[in-house]
Write a structure and sequence with these properties.
Strand content: 25-35%
Pathway: Isoprenoid biosynthesis; isopentenyl diphosphate biosynthesis via DXP pathway; isopentenyl diphosphate from 1-deoxy-D-xylulose 5-phosphate: step 2/6
Function: Catalyzes the formation of 4-diphosphocytidyl-2-C-methyl-D-erythritol from CTP and 2-C-methyl-D-erythritol 4-phosphate (MEP).
Structural class: alpha/beta
GO molecular function: 2-C-methyl-D-erythritol 4-phosphate cytidylyltransferase activity
Keywords: Isoprene biosynthesis, Nucleotidyltransferase, Transferase
Radius of gyration: 17 Å
CATH topology: Spore Coat Polysaccharide Biosynthesis Protein SpsA, Chain A
CATH architecture: Alpha-Beta Complex
CATH class: Alpha Beta
Helix content: 25-40%
Number of helices: 6
Largest sheet: 7 strands, mixed
Strand order of the largest sheet: 5-4-1-6-10-7-11
Number of strands: 11
Catalytic activity: 2-C-methyl-D-erythritol 4-phosphate + CTP + H(+) = 4-CDP-2-C-methyl-D-erythritol + diphosphate
C-alpha cells in the first residue's frame, strides 16, 4: 500500500521572542506572510497529499489568508504547546499508512532538495533534517558561568521537517504528555518512546525565524531561492 504523506504545520504559537505585536508566522517577507511561504513549499510538492495547519483558538489573522482555504489545507485548533498542536493535527488523520511531515510555520526557506532527501526514509524510526554543530558549545551553570566545553563531534542542530509514521508519532506524543515528559520536538517524543530517528543532513539556510534579525536573513535566502 502506498503511503500517504500529510504535512502538519503547528502555527498556534505567539512568537514572544520576535517582540512584533503579532505571531511571527504572520509577519511579511517579500509581500507574503512567513506562513504563506511555508505552505507554498508543501502545496507545490507532488508527494504531499494534504496539509493540516494548527492555529490558535480565535486566531484573528488566519481568516485573512486565502491560502488557508486551499482544497488541500485543513485547519485544526492548536494547543498551548507545540506538542499539543501537533497532536491535535495528528488526531485529524484517518488515512491508512499515513506519514506525518511536521514543519515549523516560521521556517520558510526549506528547499525541495532537502525535502526529497527526508522523504526517502521509510522505516519505523523516522527521520529529521539537521545540521552538524560547527560552533564551539559551552555548558554553563545556572548563573551563566562556563562549566565545560562540549565535544561537538557528534552534536547536531535539529531542524524541520521531521518525518514519522503518523500513528507511531501520535502514540509517542500522547504518552509523553500523559507522563508529563519534556517534548521539545517530534523526535524527542519518538526518542522517549524508544525509537532512534535518523539524522538527514540539511542546509544551514533552512532557518527558523525566531528573533527580529532573522527576518532580514530569511528575506535574503528567499530572494536568492526565487532567483
Amino acid at each position: 500500500m502506498s503511503r500517504k504523506i500529510i504535512a502538519i504545520i503547528p502555527a498556534a504559537g505567539i512568537g514572544a521572542r520576535m517582540k512584533a505585536g503579532m505571531p511571527k508566522q504572520y509577519l511579511t517577507i517579500l509581500g507574503k506572510t512567513i506562513l504563506e511561504h511555508t505552505l507554498s513549499i508543501m502545496l507545490n510538492h507532488c508527494a504531499i497529499s494534504r496539509i493540516i495547519v494548527a492555529v490558535s483558538k480565535n486566531d484573528p489573522y488566519s481568516p485573512e489568508l486565502s491560502i488557508l482555504s486551499h482544497e488541500k489545507v485543513q485547519l485544526v485548533e492548536g494547543g498551548e504547546t507545540r506538542a499539543e498542536s501537533v497532536l491535535s493535527a495528528l488526531n485529524a488523520i484517518n488515512e491508512e499508512n499515513a506519514w506525518a511531515l511536521v514543519h515549523d510555520a516560521a521556517r520558510p526557506c526549506l528547499t525541495e532538495t532537502d525535502l526529497n532527501k527526508l522523504l526517502e526514509i521509510n522505516d519505523e524510526h523516522g527521520a529529521i533534517l539537521a545540521t552538524p554543530v560547527t560552533d564551539t558549545i559551552k555548558r554553563s551553570d545556572e548563573i551563566g558561568t562556563i562549566i565545560t566545553t562540549e565535544d561537538r563531534s557528534q552534536l547536531w542542530q535539529a531542524q524541520t521537517p521531521q518525518f514519522f509514521q503518523a500513528d507511531l508519532l501520535k502514540n509517542a506524543i500522547y504518552n509523553g504528555l500523559a507522563k508529563q515528559q519534556i517534548i521539545t520536538d517530534e523526535s524527542s517524543a519518538m526518542e522517549l518512546a524508544g525509537f532512534r530517528p535518523h539524522l538527514v543532513a540539511g542546509r544551514s539556510d533552512n532557518i527558523k525565524v525566531t528573533r527580529p534579525e532573522d527576518l532580514a536573513l530569511a528575506e535574503f535566502y528567499l530572494t536568492r531561492k526565487i532567483r
